[in-house]
Amino acid sequence: RRLEASLRTAIHGEEFVLHYQPVVDARKETIVSFEALVRWNSPEHGFVSPGKFIPLAEDTRLIVPIGKWVLEQACLEARKWPEHVKVNVNVSPEQLLEPDFHQDVIKAMAASGLRPERLEVEVTESIFVRDAATARNSLEKIMALGCSVALDDFGTGYSSLGYLRTLRFSTIKVDRTFVQGAAQNSNESLAIINAVVAMAKSLNMTTTAEGVETAEEAELIREMGCDKIQGFYFGRPMISDEARRLFKRHP
Ligand code: G
Ligand code: G
Ligand code: NA
Ligand code: MN
Domain EAL spans what residues (predicted)? Predict the structure, then answer.
């Protein structure tokens, strides 16, 4: 069967699994959150990378039911973690533009018993390109529930900065291309990270550096004043059991 046909039955076949990647406090190096990242193991196509099936799921709108499942699973899992640890869940524009997306969030909270303060939704700047008003409305509703919102892959989209004036994101995630550039002594990357950190501070938002792979990169990012670090250096996306075991080693 074609990939799309397989994707259509994948939820029912329980072919998805969530992996979790730690986000750590830049200074203390303690775990502050885990980002949920979906994986698809298809009986017909084998392991399909999210870089391939997420765009297909978005084009076919299958991301709506898949995203609902991701949200529910991530909240159920986070309920088993220490109270101070959040869960970050990626949300596609197609989900956010559904008129009752916030109802999915309310349902996931109710089903899991997770406090809304422990859920951080990740969106990219692309949500403001298609239907900015609806996206804003949807985000304001979930912020009103007590959830926080992070701006993912910051600096790689096509949007303007205008929405930063009126939407209170809690976190700006600096895209890993800047982090990797900075580590390779790109003055332009360093300048951009410095500017984003300064801007976030004055807007009362925190920053997370993505794609930190080495101790040197972690040190550089810390010196630049990023609040949180995520990347292979502190942990690759891992299965839920392994994520839970991390708390025993780093309580
Ligand atoms: O985990 P990996 O780096 O391979 O992810 C590739 C892409 O898929 C990233 O852009 C990531 O944001 C996206 N992605 C992973 N999990 C989810 C998910 O649950 N929902 C959405 N919308 N995107 C996801
Ligand atoms: O778009 P988003 O930021 O959600 O994508 C997350 C993706 O980044 C995941 O697929 C994850 O596997 C990948 N990722 C996480 N940490 C690192 C890292 O240190 N280096 C690289 N190259 N990719 C990473
Ligand atoms: Na993300
Ligand atoms: Mn990102």
Answer: 1-251
Determine the average pLDDT of the residues in 210-234. Answer: 97
Atom of ligand 2 nearest to the CA of 212: 19
Q: How many domains does the chain have?
A: 1
Contacts of 224 (CB under 8 A, 6+ apart): 182, 190, 193, 194, 197
Is residue 21 within 8 Å of residue 235, measured between CB atoms? yes
Its pTM stands at 0.97
Residue of the CA atom closest to atom 7 of ligand 1: 51
User: Using CA positions, which residue lies closest to atom 20 of ligand 2?
Assistant: 211
pLDDT in tens, 28-87: 999 999 999 999 999 999 999 999 999 999 999 999 999 999 999 999 999 999 999 999
Q: Would 69 be classed as within a structural domain?
A: yes
Confirm whether 163 is domain-assigned. yes
237, pLDDT greater than 90? yes
**CB contact set of 215 (below 8 Å; sequence gap of 6+):** 233
For 83, the domain range is 14-243
What's the Rg (C-alpha) of the chain? Answer: 18
In a domain, residue 1? The reply is no
Pocket of ligand 1 (CB under 6 A): 37-38, 49-51, 54, 63, 67, 70, 90, 92, 237
Which atom of ligand 1 sits closest to the CA of residue 37? Answer: 16
